[in-house]
Amino acid sequence: MQLLTYPRETISLDGTWQAIPDQYETFEGYFEDFFGDDSDNPTGFAPKPIYEPDASIENDPVDFNIHDGRSVEIPSSWGEEIPEFRHYEGWVWYAKTFDWTAEQGNNRAFVRFGAINYKAKVWLNGELLGSHEGGYTPFSFDVTGELQDGENTLIVQADSKRYEDGIPNEDTDWFNFGGVNRSVELVTVPNTFVRNYKIETTLSGGTVDIHVSAWIENSTPETAISVAFPELNRDIELSRVGEDEFTGELSLSEADVTLWRPSEPRLYTIRLETGDDVVADEVGLRDVRVSGSDIVLNGEPIWLRGIALHEEADGKGRALDSKDIKARFRWMNELGCNYARLAHYPHTEEMARTADEEGILLWEEVPAYWDIEFGDESVQTLYRQQLRELIQRDWNRASVILWSIANETDHNDETRNAVLPEMADYVRELDDTRLVTAACFVDDTDDGLVIRDPLGDHLDVVGINEYHGWYYGSADDMQRFQETPNGPPVLISETGGGAKRGYHGDGDERWTEEFQAEIYRGQIAAAKDNEQIAGLSPWILFDFRAPMRQNEHQRGYNRKGIVDQHGRKKKAFHVLREFYHTDHSG
Ligand code: GCB
């Protein structure tokens, strides 16, 4: 179960760390000699700010001193911090020393990483804590027995290589930003504490039913947990339903609650208390479901005016800070969005937190992208792990309404067709109050454009990525999209085309802003009156780094942004803005 940290006060381990590249993967042995707790080693575990070579020590690692790397600010993508690392993929050793006194903490302590791309191995004071695979989700280790009074040294081996059996695999249309891309923190808690909780809201008739589950670590038979909603003047005692799981319910009249919605993103405090542990969080209460071809929020159909985003900021790689996040929401608000697709992997938790406050609905996804090894059982395990880590991180965010399990995977591949429904089921096991989706393809047939993907039968909402007007045909071809009467809602999860900002010409000249704007006009015309299409998230808000895009207009960037990487708008931005402010703007 994912450790809940965001609403807790934690000790930040961000700031200056040391980083050493290890392209040939030679230093692990040195590291063990130097830092191992072997008492024959005269250095023992004695980290020094700067290691001075000592000839009396056997295997003295003259070529490698963990404390003597380049100084980098964490969180960061290393290629943005150190220019020579710009295209480097491989191992980097990170070190951070910090002081700790027992009084600082509670009974239990964890070190928690927001995300390290792609694999990580972690040691504290020479003890291996564990490892993690997956570049975009948080993980933590119990360090209760490892922290020592005084100086402590945390070492991370980060590996940004791309793997054939990874998720994603080696082939993606985005840049592989290696690094400790999100914050690192120490979390201290009492011995018995709330490891995580989950709030689910259902609306039926005029009644709002709230179901709360909580997972308590180290509970005893006497453990009790209460949950309060101070603004609603209501509280509940949860009952034990499993070894560490407790649940409880509360029913309110709809008239007494302001349900969360984009136009009024009301959040309520939820306070969970067990023994000495208190967690207070902010949550929205809302109900999302599908009815026929509509997505229905709090009983009303809603059309999703969206945009897709990568998690990338110019000069910062994947390590966005609060200002970058706020800026993204300003762009979305200016466009008139009520929805965003956070592609193609879990973005930072702060995106969803901000979306809760700003009233932007979200599609979140794991990087099961293009052609991963669906048949490999260890890949399936990793797949489930990434889904679990994302879902358990964001399942209390009212903004998140869609969990996407895959992007543009081949629906003629039998193995994929067997595995993806299992992943959809797995998502529902974890969270059956949101909608399951995937970005699929449309097939061009004699009967028009149709969704042939058998996965459609296992999804609540079908996403389609289509590039009519860019990779093929014209944008107006989308008019041939065949509605399935009473079929599931369809979201255009991607559409668009490339334009070099500032490059102008006729509407039929590729790479001009005018050409891109024409695609948007055609796509909008096709989408807006189609009964089955329930929303749109064109590809993409910003131009982004993409190693496979190298023509004279691209030079390492995918130029399908409606804003360039420096934040300068293209014409298509205004076309989309106009649409969102006039049509479907309710
Ligand atoms: C897609 C992919 C996205 C690419 C985009 C493109 O369908 O999902 O990752 O960047 O096309 O630009 O071709």
How would the blueprint of this fold be written?
Layout: E1 11-12, E2 15-22, H1 27-35, E3 70-74, H2 78-81, E4 91-100, E5 108-113, E6 119-124, E7 127-133, E8 139-142, E9 150-159, E10 184-189, E11 193-204, E12 207-217, E13 226-229, E14 234-237, E15 239-240, E16 245-253, E17 268-274, E18 277-283, E19 288-291, E20 294-297, E21 300-301, E22 304-309, H3 322-335, E23 339-342, H4 349-358, E24 361-365, H5 377-394, E25 400-407, H6 414-430, E26 435-440, E27 443-445, E28 448-450, E29 462-465, E30 490-494, H7 513-528, E31 533-536, E32 544-545, E33 557-558, H8 571-582
Parallel strand pairs: 22-23, 22-31, 23-24, 24-25, 25-26, 26-29, 29-30, 30-31
Antiparallel strand pairs: 1-10, 2-3, 2-4, 4-9, 5-8, 5-10, 6-7, 6-9, 11-12, 12-16, 13-14, 13-17, 15-16, 17-18, 19-20, 20-21, 27-28, 32-33
Give the fraction of residues assigned to helices.
10-25%
The top-level CATH class of the largest domain is Alpha Beta
Q: Strand share of the residues?
A: 25-35%
Terminal Cα span = 39 Å
Overall geometric form? globular
Task: Please report the number of helical segments.
Answer: 8
> Any ligands, ions or cofactors bound here, and which?
(2S,3S,4S,5R)-3,4,5-trihydroxy-6-oxo-oxane-2-carboxylic acid
In CATH, the homologous superfamily of the largest domain goes by the name Glycosidases
Overall number of domains: 3
Biggest sheet overview? 8 strands, parallel, barrel
Would you identify the regions where 5 or more consecutive residues have pLDDT less than 50? 37-51
CATH topology of the largest domain: TIM Barrel
Report the average pLDDT across residues: 93
